[in-house]
Amino acid sequence: MMPVVAIVGRPNVGKSTLFNRILGQRKAIVEDFPGVTRDRNYAEVTRYEKPFTLIDTGGFEPVTEERMLVQMREQSQLAIEEADIILFVADGKEGLTPSDVEVAQMLRRVDKPILYVVNKVDGDAQEVGATEFYALGVETIHTISAEHGRGVPDLIDDILALLPEAAPLRDNEGEVRLAVIGRPNVGKSTLVNRLLGFERMVANPTAGTTRDSVDTPFIYNKNNYLLIDTAGIRRKGKVSQRLEKFSVIQALKAMERAHIVLVVIDAEEGVTDQDMTVAGYAYEKGRAVILVVNKWDRLEKNNRTVSEYTETLRSTFKFLSFAPIIFISALTGQRVNKIMGEVEKVSAEFNKKISTSHLNQLLADAERGHQPPVYQGKRLKLFYITQTAVRPPTFIIFVNKAEGVHFSYQRYLGNKIREAFGFSGCPIRLQFKDRERNE
Ligand SMILES: Nc1nc2c(ncn2[C@@H]2O[C@H](COP(=O)(O)OP(=O)(O)OP(=O)(O)O)[C@@H](O)[C@H]2O)c(=O)[nH]1
Ligand SMILES: Nc1nc2c(ncn2[C@@H]2O[C@H](COP(=O)(O)OP(=O)(O)OP(=O)(O)O)[C@@H](O)[C@H]2O)c(=O)[nH]1
């Protein structure tokens, strides 16, 4: 499992600037789908020797100084619980403030590595001022300029040195790993109990403690599955709604290990921002997705309800047009028995490999059906296509000028592949590569 590094600190100290600096870019993989990139507080950082998940805990609007303190406390508390390393960021321009002191005191009691970072130290001249932060009683302070990158490489070195070794992934040959994710209270535990067919203790009765997701192996139709379940992880009630997005961390961790993700949505509440964030990550990570609309018993229905609901979901989750939708009631058990059948289908699709000859035939048909665009005065030529990977299905198309294949034509080709070969539930990846005609 990838370790988590959380950035905490008062508003405006430069947390998101540092986030982007460590990430090395503004991450925007699926710009064309509004909503997917909206919540950019989480990212997988893979450009250094060790990968980690980076979290920016900022972004709240403080109303009053007092309110801000409350929020900072909550924020830090969550970081303490969920992160492996904490970056505490303060503002060197503004100097040490009482809330810095307060949060630092909280962090001091924690048994996790904390890096104290003083930001906006843009040059040597500001170094002296930053020494006042030693009043926090810490041994080392990193003075940096997130904006200009000063001091950041050293900070990153220290983060890497502190990162725990990633726990080895359980990888049993042939086992399908299935994650059940969704907002608190959406019905995950109820669903998981139904799926597994027995009652389990899932709620965590001890306030203030968290546990990681629970893995339960099970067999369905003679195949091995591992159910990764994030239910009951969040402390209930204690944490302000505003910070509910923190439960996304667990979802991320669970999705990292999963092949197939069941995104559970509350039929009554509809799709929330958090659902979008989580589903967006599943998509970006190339996981297979099944949308499960739970609490279907709660809706007043007529003969159009299903199609209307489907339409709404489709227009919200544009990037998940490939995901099957199942309407269930985990409480009554209605249609829960459809889920594993769908999982089997999607799993087969996720592992499906199409022969190069079939693919090339499709490519030729697609090219005839809709000519590739002209690029720099020349018509693009698609030479051949091959499937290079499964989970997710990944294709390389060799072209005379790869950069000229615009998004609309990429989407056209993607749709053609789906029309011909299905891949229900699976995101597909298309890569374009340059190739001379007579190589
Ligand atoms: N001079 C200077 N300004 C910086 C530096 N890093 C960030 N800033 C500025 O500080 C302001 C706040 O930066 P953000 O990164 O948005 O701060 P934040 O902590 O994420 O703020 P919230 O989202 O409100 O929590 C912006 O105007 C940045 O341009 C720096 O290294 N030097
Ligand atoms: N009406 C109705 N209620 C449901 C359904 N599924 C779950 N519930 C109820 O919703 C509440 C939350 O269900 P849980 O299964 O605990 O939800 P969860 O997603 O595991 O919640 P966390 O543990 O907070 O992550 C419980 O009161 C359930 O009885 C459903 O299909 N219909």
TrEMBL record:
GO molecular function, one term: ribosome binding
Superkingdom: Bacteria
Residue span(s) of domain EngA-type G: 3-167, 176-351
GO biological process per UniProt: ribosome biogenesis
Alphabetical list of PROSITE patterns matching this protein: G_ENGA (PS51712)
Residues holding GTP 2: 182-189, 229-233, 294-297
Protein name: GTPase Der
